[in-house]
Structures are given as structure tokens and as C-alpha cells.
Amino acid sequence: MSPANADDPTVSPRPFSDPAPAPASARVPLPTKVAAGSGEAAINIGVNVPNNFSFLIYNIGLAVSPTLLGIALFLPRLWDAVIDPVMGSVSDNAKTRWGRRRPFMLVGGLLSIVGMFVICYVPGGIKETDWGQREWGPQLPLGFVTLDLYQPLGDWFYCAYLTLVCILFYTALTIFAVPYGALTMELTSNYSERTRVMSFRTLFTYLSGLLMAWIYPLARQSQDPVQGALVVGVVLAVVILVVTMVPTLFVREPKRVIAAPPTPGSDRPGPEKIGLVRGIKETLAVPAFLMILAAYTVGFLGVIMVIKLGKYVNFYHVYGGGEEGLDKGAFVQGWAETLATLCGIAAAFMINRLARRVEKKWILIGALSCSFVGGLLSWMLYSPGFSTWEKSLPLFGQFGEGTWAGWLPNQITFAFHPLILSFALIWPGLAGLLIMSNSMIADLCDVDELKTGQRREGMYWAVFNWIQKTAIGIALLFSGVILDIVGYDADAEIQSDSAIFNMRLAYLLVVCGGVAVAALITAFIPITQKRMEAVRAELEARRTTSPGA
Which residues pair with 391 in a beta bridge? Predict the structure, then answer.
């Protein structure tokens, strides 16, 4: 098959029949995979803390309008999406004695530490002042629903503050994340080894998810949500310090000989420098890349747009709301997210094992099928009719009694409710999306090199993030609007029956619909083992005939 047709969706794929391991020259050592994967924890924390923790602290803790919160989280995502391609172009074209990626990773990692702490620092007492209780804002009719922006000035202050600190944090995180993502794509040129490298990134996504599962229960250990958020900020800042510095300091950038065609107008071979706008246009002109973008975005948004609804259903339907319901629901949700994380880790290991034997897109479709089943089961298992099983065990035996200060426990209590099974089944699909999207985009960088003579991992990764973050921003905007549409009342400890029914229905339909469409798109992605082998063969042939290769 001609390599020129490697991204042509009209060409029928060949069967995946070669389970041979990656050649030794293409293998990435295990310590390098671990170090490279660790940086993904910073990205996962950076995405989830503003998106999820902010709603729990500002909305449930401080009763800030969910619609305003949605807007406050939407605007920084737009900014974040705009600067991603800029950072990708800067990193791809950078030439320093330390490489194209690592200098930016160092600066971005250090700034992200400060940004995370600032996000978790919440000014207290604003809504209790006379100024904070005054109301202002328009009411905007949007078809069948009215967007109510007539809110207390305290709500507006919190949302403006959250918008500003998120913009600063996302800028810092982008300086780290875009070069980091490009670096992991450059570590190997082998089709199946790329999937295994990306599985380590996803492994650290879920390992950081173990921490993320407990940040809200940790914050609720303090009676004051503002103080609880500050404790969480210190913990997360330390974690980000570790996971950004490890890949920055311990992963070397590979040196590549680029298979560059002659630059137009020159008799010497060499890559032509491509500007930002042209780079974006050429990247978005690859049909296979657009399919990967569409599948990832639809599947990912099908979960994150309503994942908070699942928590609200847990708090207010399964456990009845009120302070007791919030405490109990948050505790069970912590164990739900813990099991979900373990399921995601198990999925990453399974995908790692299947990478040599099964085509990438069929692995992804199988993972998305698990998410579809999990969404269906939510209607039955998110029910107050099921009892919660609990078991307490001493953490350090009698030796540990009384040794923990303040809110730190000296025992561990396990809790299980059937809703945990539904929630956990959703996460293998997310693992598949994370691993396979990155792995397939790395493959497309070979196709791009064949056509343009450029290694543009930074631009591909940046455009991928750009589209993804724009969609996430829209989802965050509507996640707050959805809470208003379904009838959620932030000032009520007990929600109405109609609000609970609407939350349950929206959660079911959006999750199942999103992953089903993503699976359908994935089936048509034209990337196969045989096609990529043909591309690699022509690239290697070109390198052997290029002067200076």
C-alpha cells in the first residue's frame, strides 16, 4: 500500500496480523516510560481541580450561582485554547542547548505550582457583607429557558476572582503541558510501542485520580470550606512540584534525523519553517486527525459535561441531601472515584498488553462500550433503595491511636454502594480515549513528516488540546446552565423530586449518547499497523538517501 494513502479514509484497512514485539531500537526503557508518564498527573490535576472542585467549594460550600460558575470556568478555557497552538509553534521551532521541550517544561511546571495554590485560596466572607448581598445582572431569554444572571454581587466577585486565577493557572500549565505532550510523542517511532508509552501517561492520570477522589472529603474535614480548600491547595502544589520536575529533569529529548524533502526554490534538502497560522491549517487538513478529534471530544464531553450531575444525584437522591447527606455522599463518592481509578489503571494495563495484538481503534471501541454500560446502569444503581455497606479498620493499630493531629484519622473506613459499580465502569472508556488518541496522533506525525518534512508533535498536540479545551469550555458553561435547567436550587438542602428526576435523566442520556457516537466515529479512523509500517519504511528510505543522514 502506498504511504501517500496512509490517511485516506477511502482505502480499506488491512488486518492486524503481526504481533511481533517492537524492535530493541524502538523500545523505550521502563524508567523513561515511568518518568515520562508522571507529567500527565499535573495535567489531570490541572483539568479537574478547577472543573470539579470549584463547583463543590463555590456552589455547595458558598452557594454561588452555578450559571455564573459555568461562565467563570468557560472563559479561561477559551483563553487556554487560544494559547495552546501558540505554545506548540514556539516549542516546535525553538532551538536551545537544552532542547525544544524541556526549558519550557521547567518554567511552566514551576509557575503551575504557584497557580494551583492560588486557585485553592478562596477569599472568605464576601457574600456576608452588605455589598456582597446586593443583586445585579441581566436575565437573558434563550429559547425555552431564561439565563438568570441577576445575582448577588458576592457571586459576581467570586466568579470574577475564579476567572482571573484560572487564566493565570492555565497559562502556566500550557507552558508545561504542550512541550511535555510533544516530548512523549517523540520517544519512539514504533506503532505498538507508542501505545505502551501513552498507557503510562494514562496510568498517572488515574494514579492522580486517586488523590482527586479524596480532595473534597479532605476539604470537608474543616467546617469552613475556605480553610478546607487552602489545605487542598498545599497538598496539590506539592504533588505538582514532583510530577512536573520528574519528566523535565529525567527524560531526554531524542535526536532525530528529519526525512525532509527539498525546500521549494532551493537545491538543498531541509525542513521549511512553517508559521503558526499555516501550521494550524495544515494540521486541521488531515482527515484522520479530524476523526480522532471528533471521537475524543464527543466521548470525553459525554462524560465530563454531566459528571457533576452524577455527584449531585448521589448527594441529593441517594443520600437525601442536607449536611448529613452531603457528608455521606461525599464519602461514598470518594470510594466510587477510588474504584473508578483502579478500573482505569486496570484498563491501561490491559490496553498495554493488547497493543501488539489488536488494532488501536478496536481497543478503543471496546473501552467505550464499558462506559456505555456504566451509563445505562446509573438509572438502576443510583438508588436510595440500596443500603451502604461499611467496614472500619485501624490504620496503624493501637500504636496509632491519638497520634494524628486535628482532622487526620487513625482508622480507615471502607464504604460500598452499588452506584460505585456504575461510576467505575465509565472510566475504562476514558482510559481508551486518552491512550489511543495520543497514540494515533503520534502516528499521524509520521504521515506529516512524509508530506512536509517537519516533525510537528508540538503543533499536533497543541491543536488537539485547542479543540478539546474549547469543547470543554463550552461543556463547563452548559454544566452550570444544566443545573439551572433541571431545577437545582443551590439554597435548598433538599432538592425537589422533579429536579432529581431531570438530573438522573440528563446524566444517563448524555453519557450514553456521547460514548456511542464516539465509538461510531472511531470505527472509521483510517489508521492501521500495515499503513503505518509503509509510512515508516518510506521515511527510513528517504533518510538513507538524504545528504547528512
Answer: 414
